[in-house]
Design a protein that fits this description.
- The protein is of the alpha+beta class and 119 residues long.
- The protein has one domain (8-112).
- The chain has 4 helices and 4 strands.
- The protein has helices spanning 8-15, 72-93, 99-104, 108-112, and strands at residues 16-22, 25-31, 43-52, 55-63.
- A hairpin with a 2-residue loop joins strand 3 and strand 4.
- The radius of gyration is 15 Å and the shape is elongated.
Length: 119
């Protein structure tokens, strides 16, 4: 069975529950019950911690459910959407942080090489 092509940016924008993003990181939550109708707590999102000193950490994708419980087709969508959420978050705050981050960690790929937490 072939999965249909999903415009993830449009999906995120149409299903956002909350979005609190700044240069210090934040959170993004999206209702994904349309994609995973048999899933309880069908919420996915992304978050970013502020590490201090003007540096924000890598952006992390998350879910309030276990993706192992999804069908194989749904798992493909899950992991594509997880990556899309992280990139969407990055595009909203340019990776976060102060001028150092803007000048030196100026791509999604570089941002994803940062630690997630300072602890």
């Amino acid at each position: 069975m072939k999965t249909k092509k999903i415009d993830y940016v449009e999906f995120i924008e149409n299903n956002t529950i909350s979005c609190d993003i700044s240069y210090r990181g934040g959170t993004l939550k999206v209702n994904v019950s349309e994609l995973f109708p048999n899933t309880e707590n069908a919420i996915m999102g992304a978050y970013q911690n502020y590490l201090g000193g003007g540096i924000a950490g890598a952006i992390v994708g998350a879910a309030q459910f276990n993706p192992d419980d999804l069908t194989k087709e749904e798992q493909v969508i899950f992991y594509e959407l997880k990556e899309a959420l992280k990139k969407y978050f990055y595009n909203l705050n340019s990776g976060g942080g102060d001028d150092y981050m803007v000048e030196n960690v100026n791509s999604y790929k570089k941002n994803q090489n940062l630690p997630v937490s300072g602890y």
